[in-house]
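Notes, p. 3: input format for complexes.
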Amino acid sequence: MSLRVALIGYGFMGAAHSVGWRQAPAVFDLPEDVERAVLVGRNAAAVAQAAQKWGWAESATDWREVIARDDIDIVDIVTPGDSHAEIAIAALDAGKHVLCEKPLANTVAEAEAMTAAADRAAQSGVRAMVGFTYRRVPAVTLLRDLVAAGKVGTVQQVRAAYRQDWLVDPEMPLAWRLQKEHAGSGALGDIGAHIIDMTQFVTGQRIASVSGTMDTIVKQRPLLGSGSGLSGTASDGYGDVTVDDVALFTGRLESGALASFEATRFATGRKNALTLEVSGDRGALAFDLEDLNTLQFYDRTAPDELQGFTRILVTEAEHPYVAAWWPAGHMLGYEHGFVHQAKDLVEAIASGQDAHPTFEEGLAVQRVLASVEASAVRDSAWVDALATVD
Ligand code: SOE
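Output follows (390 residues plus alpha-L-sorbopyranose):
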């Protein structure tokens, strides 16, 4: 049998997910085959062209019609955040497995409704997963495994940063990611969500409370003229930026350990720099996305003459996901996370297991995002992130 996928959206993430769906059955021995059935988008000519380029059998313009089809098993949502809830809930109610891009929603209320729909659908074996793809970089999965195995001992502090610089140019047009009604928030929800999820994933703990501050550095930008997404060109008029450019926040994990976070689109010179460091009483682990095939490990229990960070080359067959790829020392890249994501979802569907990160885990991230925003408007007061609503 094969699982037939409908992908809704065809921007940057549409390309990345298409690679994932194409490569997963070619590289891994999946329990079910995968078919790239339909690519959905609003512009008929553009979506047809993308479907042909990325190997989708068909294209369509109406996601509701596609979801109603009996021959679709998985609905993969890569649209802007303002349509995640409507599409995901409709797909789950129609009995389709769902993969939804991060952050799960634009608000906690939407994420709660989506999680309730996922819980209902789970009773008939339907799976719902959020696309926090970086969990599936082998070095990040290994980091999580090593923390769980006690290699750093008790986690005492976490340092996380996700830094980009694509907004430093004030003439960069007012794309959907800069509009609250479409994106929910700015750097916070787009890239801060990744480091929140990664912190909760690698420590196995939720972020219980936060104190944060946010800033919008360029407050007006040229309206989008021709083009779309982030690659459009500017027109003459200007409009207000309604989201954050920078979010800085501190969190306390459930254990009480402190974690610091920086999410910014104004880190001049930093293109896609994500770093995560976990410090414990026995050792430390550090990950850097710009060097994603490696993990740094410091073992405090090693003899004095061997003290120092060790660079683990995460390309051994014993490392997560790696055995199916190339011999040791042959590197993986950004796109492999999307392949691993497709593989893990197919395996969860076939085995009847939860597909992590579940919508419940996506909702937990959403509560942290809302808590940072709530804290920022209250002079950085500490906000309980476990129960936060909008
Ligand atoms: C844009 O900031 C973006 O594409 C994010 O939306 C992705 O989640 C991240 O992988 C790269 O940067």
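The longest helix spans residues 359-376.
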